[in-house]
């Protein structure tokens, strides 16, 4: 069969296989179903290459606390009723060193349906339950990749009175003051490094110049997504998602020049173009008075910078939350931590974020 995107596969798997089991076996059961727990498919970015691991007939079921004791019974019913294949794909998986590969009929194979109590699952993913108040500390302790997953993906059924839909809606975007803080922190990172590519090039360190420029490119793409109210994904998909933004094409071309094989004046022109474009996008958010920042020389040195601290200062000046204004301008946890082993463990990310606030 031709490639079927993972979200559509999961939607049909629920509608045609799992839901018909749950209805008769558990009359009146209130549950939600969806695919929100990671994988390229939750961002709509899966391709045939994605099918070699962690992809297939997968589905998440959620129940409320009153029905949590029924989860083993629910999963047993699903397990007993699953066909060997669905749409030509196996419904069971076996662990391998390369991930979960679909293998039908093997001893020890397991299906891809999970079931959790909704509040506990949310706390496990985020470190808090967004059904209540989401605090500033909560927002700043969550990597944007996790927020992209939870607000992306798909909900196929919400029989929990809309609880899952409401939880996702609560995570749709930052409150304005948190948004200002995170953007100001991103521009502060740019300000700390924007003069370095030119200095590296001046002393003949072309590799070092490109290395620093690559870090700036990453920060600028994240800024672009933040200005358009899109959660930046992790690095594998950052360029892809940024490139799909309206008006991204000239910025993408400028960044390609900044990182390319040309001489330093050519690469500097690309970097300046990207810096100025992202400053314009930031002005366009309306979060602060427009700075209209344009590149100027770095002191008396022969290379151009935006002096990006001006953009950060304008944003910070508009923060009305007194406690947030007093925080170090380091932003959310994934702006100062790049360790997968921290960012994928909410309890670790929260401890780090709380320590530095």
Name the helix and strand elements from N-terminus to C-terminus, one letter apiece. Answer: HEEHEEEEEHHHEHHHHHHHEEHHHH
- Mean pLDDT reading: 93
Strand content: 5-15%
The assigned structural class equals alpha+beta
Uncertain regions spanning at least 5 consecutive residues: 97-101
Number of domains: 2
Our Rg estimate from Cα atoms comes to: 23 Å
Number of strands: 10
* Side-by-side strand order of the widest sheet: 6-5-7-2-1-8
Provide keyphrases for this structure.
elongated; two-stranded antiparallel ribbon; 2 domains; 357 residues; alpha+beta
Characterization of this structure:
With 357 residues, this protein is an alpha+beta fold. It is 50% helix and 11% strand. Helix 1 crosses helix 2 (71-81) and helix 11 (249-259) runs antiparallel to helix 12 (264-283). The termini are far apart. Mean pLDDT is 93; it is low at 97-101.
Short summary of the structure?
This protein has 357 residues and is an alpha+beta fold. The chain has helices at 6-25, 71-81, 118-126, 136-140, 144-151, 163-170, 176-193, 196-202, 206-227, 235-243, 249-259, 264-283, 309-317, 322-326, 340-343, 346-356; strands at 31-35, 58-63, 85-86, 89-90, 92-96, 99-102, 110-117, 154-158, 296-297, 304-305. It has 2 domains: 6-170, no CATH class; 176-326.
Compile the SSE list and pairings.
Elements: H1 6-25, E1 31-35, E2 58-63, H2 71-81, E3 85-86, E4 89-90, E5 92-96, E6 99-102, E7 110-117, H3 118-126, H4 136-140, H5 144-151, E8 154-158, H6 163-170, H7 176-193, H8 196-202, H9 206-227, H10 235-243, H11 249-259, H12 264-283, E9 296-297, E10 304-305, H13 309-317, H14 322-326, H15 340-343, H16 346-356
Parallel strand pairs: 2-7
Antiparallel strand pairs: 1-2, 1-8, 3-4, 5-6, 5-7, 9-10
